[in-house]
Design goal:
The chain is of the alpha+beta class. It contains 10 helices and 12 strands. The strands form 3 sheets. Strands 1, 2, 5, 6, 7, 8 and 9 form a 7-stranded antiparallel sheet that branches. Strands 10-11-12 form a 3-stranded antiparallel sheet. The structure holds adenosine-5'-diphosphate and magnesium ion (MG). The site of adenosine-5'-diphosphate (ADP) has 19 residues, from strand 5, strand 6, strand 7 and strand 9. Adenosine-5'-diphosphate binds next to strand 5, strand 6, strand 7 and strand 9.
């Protein structure tokens, strides 16, 4: 379906202004944010997505940002708008982290940044939890395996550059599954100072914890938890390709 875009000029007043200044903003703040958007060449916003602010549909909402589909030139992009009550002073740090993971082909492609906005590639697809719900009906182990493998490979590349995402235990919020690939998102809580545990955290969430692990078990029968934990332990000690591939084997990927 073609998306219908609304000029950012319309976003000066409620209810639309709530998107640019959530949960609360003064008229001055909204005007200044619209100026910022003009500098970023964002011309219009499309109110679509699975979440809402009031009655307006958006792509998503977290503690730092409100994410909407927007147009930059004639290209569709995802626009992350800093919440007015966010603990972060600006979007700069997140943009640095996103640029860094892009160097190993992870995450949405970083496009532009300003104090209150981050412009990135729009990732079309479903949150992992919704995607696996749809998949269950089809019982497709093959599709699930290739998706998980794709995500683990991304996590392996992050481990290699000593980058820790930080929130991968929550798969549903941080993996979007599209037609051809799955993408990790939200590098806001990431760090290059912590010991990376991307592969370990996400493997635990996929196969060992409650929640998602219960669902993956229903779709395909994996090795015992003991075997998986042992393979993870070895990988954690030495994050080599060899140990990673042994882990993939144990996980039947
Ligand atoms: N590049 C993107 N393309 C599509 N949807 C996105 C994109 N980035 C974020 N989202 C959606 O917006 C939600 C909130 O974004 P997120 O970066 O997690 O914000 P926060 O840092 O506030 O937690 C995500 O859960 C996801 O549903
Ligand atoms: Mg988040």
């Amino acid at each position: 379906m073609a998306h219908s875009f609304i000029s950012i000029k319309k976003f000066t007043e409620e209810p639309h202004s709530k998107i640019l200044g959530y949960p609360n903003a003064t008229n001055r703040q909204i005007k200044s944010r619209i100026n910022e958007l003009e500098k970023l060449k964002i011309k219009s916003i499309c109110l679509t997505g699975p979440t809402t602010i009031g009655s307006l549909e958006i792509l998503g909402k977290g503690y730092v940002g409100v994410v909407v589909l927007a147009k930059r030139g004639n290209k569709e992009v995802a626009l992350k708008v800093r919440r007015t009550d966010s603990q972060r002073e600006n979007m700069k740090n997140e943009s640095i982290l996103l640029n860094l993971v892009n160097t190993v082909n992870v995450g949405p492609k970083m496009i532009d940044v300003s104090k209150n906005f981050l412009v990135m590639e729009y990732i079309e697809g479903e949150k992992f939890s919704e995607w696996i719900d749809m998949l269950k009906g089809l019982g497709s182990a093959k599709k699930l395996k290739s998706t998980i493998k794709n995500v683990l490979e991304d996590c392996y590349r992050l481990d290699q550059i000593e980058f820790d995402h930080g929130e991968l235990s929550n798969i549903s919020k941080h993996v979007i599954v599209g037609k051809n690939k799955a993408t990790l998102i939200d590098f806001e809580s990431s760090s290059t100072k912590r010991r990376p545990s991307n592969v370990t955290s996400i493997t635990q969430a996929f196969f060992i914890g409650s929640g998602i692990a219960k669902q993956t078990q229903k779709i395909y029968k994996n090795s015992s938890k003991e075997k998986i934990i042992l393979a993870l332990k070895n990988y954690k000690q030495e994050k080599t390709r060899e140990n990673f591939e042994t882990l993939l084997k144990i996980l039947k990927l």
